[in-house]
Write a structure and sequence with these properties.
30% of the residues lie in helices and 36% in strands. It folds into four domains: 37-50 and 316-386, conserved putative lor/sdh protein from methanococcus maripaludis s2 fold (Beta Barrel), CATH 2.40.420.20; 56-62 and 234-314, Efflux pump adaptor protein, beta barrel domain (Elongation Factor Tu (Ef-tu), domain 3); 66-96 and 202-232, OB fold (Dihydrolipoamide Acetyltransferase, E2P) (Beta Barrel); 99-199, Helix Hairpins, CATH 1.10.287. The strands form six sheets. A six-stranded antiparallel barrel has the order 3-12-15-14-13-16. It has a four-stranded antiparallel beta sheet with strand order 4-11-9-6, with no helix packed on it. Strands 8-7-5-10 form a four-stranded antiparallel beta sheet, with no helix packed on it. The protein has helices at 2-22, 99-148, 154-200, and strands at 37-40, 42-44, 47-62, 65-69, 74-79, 86-87, 92-96, 203-205, 210-215, 222-223, 228-234, 238-245, 257-262, 268-277, 287-293, 305-321, 326-328, 331-337, 343-347, 349-354, 357-362, 369-371, 383-386.
Length: 388
């Protein structure tokens, strides 16, 4: 029985060894899969001549802006304007305590009244001196006839003549006193006028129709001459102050029309006109300030960022549709199509965007064929079938 069980096992083992030795795998190659075929539009990279545009940056400002300051030193007692308020010319913006000025006005008015009383006294003194002159001259004329008749002595005549001279001198002195008093009256009047003007300066008035951009005064603050209280912008005039490098300043001309773009307002485009080219350059940045006026009916806030497009002539550019550029992570590239119709992904470096095209700075030789709009299924190594 044992022998019958062993014989089948030995036979199966010998059969397995024989099959294993005789069925060897010969070296060879696996059948290659056929390349995927993608239908896509293909174009040839060509150089084109395009206007060379320089994009300068600037800030929207009001054509007329004013910093309102006080002329008096005193405590701010009232503030009537806030940021964003539309104000009219002559409107009261704030009030400064004028008690000190009022005291000065009373003092100046008192000095004026005193000067006028002094004038009255001086006029009376001059009238008295004039009467003395009249009497002295009449007496001198009578004594002149008497001395001619030798009716009086020379001593008596000399005394009368001396009194005449004294009376005339006293009149001149009184007349000069009147003139001096009148000069003091003019000075007192000027002092009163100056203090009255200062009293009016206690009210801070708007110099023109405009909008309050900034308020730097609060009730209780100490106002001083030259200390800013408000910043106002006049309605009806907006411009862009743009910085132009010295290399491009020759391209700017007076009254030149330029395109102004406002990114904050959904890239709104306005037509600007060069109004002023500041002749002096900034020695640090080597740049010039150019003031570009915007249309008079433009209603946009000041302080916005703006871009100015400045044409600098024509230049050759290699442009491709923006749809041809593929982003892979932080890298950008295009799919080139070689002579065998195989797509090869190549990295490129892009420059400016001009409408729906991108400038290629490197990575795409002129004359290369590229896929205009790569479909999602297109990969490196795929075969491209040129379609429309």
């Amino acid at each position: 029985m044992l022998l019958k069980r062993i014989i089948p096992f030995v036979f199966l083992s010998a059969l397995f060894l024989t099959y294993s030795c005789s069925d060897k795998i010969e070296p060879g190659t696996t059948a290659s899969k056929s390349a995927q075929v993608i239908k896509a539009q293909v174009a040839v990279a060509k150089m084109t001549t395009q206007p060379y545009l320089y994009e300068a940056v600037g800030t929207v400002v009001a054509q007329t802006s004013s910093t309102v300051s006080g002329k008096l030193m005193g405590t701010v007692t009232a503030v009537y304007a806030r940021e964003g308020d539309a104000i009219k010319q002559g409107a009261v913006l704030a009030v400064i305590d004028d008690r000190q000025v009022s005291a000065q006005l009373q003092q100046a008015q008192a000095a004026l009244a005193e000067s006028r009383r002094a004038e009255t006294a001086a006029l009376s003194a001059r009238d008295a001196a004039l009467a003395g002159v009249v009497l002295a001259r009449a007496t001198h004329n009578r004594y002149l006839r008497l001395i001619q008749d030798e009716s009086i002595s020379r001593q008596e005549f000399d005394e009368v003549e001396a009194r005449r001279h004294q009376a005339e001198a006293a009149f001149k002195q009184a007349d000069a006193m009147v003139e001096a008093v009148r000069q003091r009256i003019q000075q007192a009047k000027a002092a009163v006028t100056a203090v009255e003007i200062s009293k009016k300066d206690a009210k801070i008035l708007a110099p023109f129709n405009g909008i309050v951009i900034a308020k730097m005064a609060e009730v209780g603050d100490l106002a001083a001459p030259g200390k800013p209280l408000f910043i106002l912008e006049k309605k009806g005039g907006i411009r862009v102050d743009v910085v132009i490098p010295e290399a491009h300043i020759e391209a700017i001309k007076q009254n030149q029309k330029l395109k102004v773009t406002l990114p904050a307002l959904q890239s709104q485009v306005l037509a600007g006109t060069v109004q002023t080219i500041v002749p002096g350059a900034d020695p640090q940045s080597r740049s010039f300030i150019v003031k570009v006026d915007l249309p008079a009916d433009t209603a946009i806030p000041s302080g916005l960022f703006a871009r100015i497009t400045l044409p600098l002539g024509d230049s050759p550019l290699l442009l491709i549709p923006a749809s041809a550029v593929v982003a892979q992570g932080q890298l950008t590239g295009v799919y080139l199509v070689d002579a065998e119709g195989i797509a090869r992904f190549r990295l490129i470096r892009t420059g400016r965007k001009i409408e729906n095209s991108l400038e290629v700075l490197s990575g795409l030789p002129e004359g290369s064929r590229y896929v205009v709009a790569p479909p999602p299924a297109l990969v490196d190594g795929a075969r491209v079938e040129v379609g429309s």
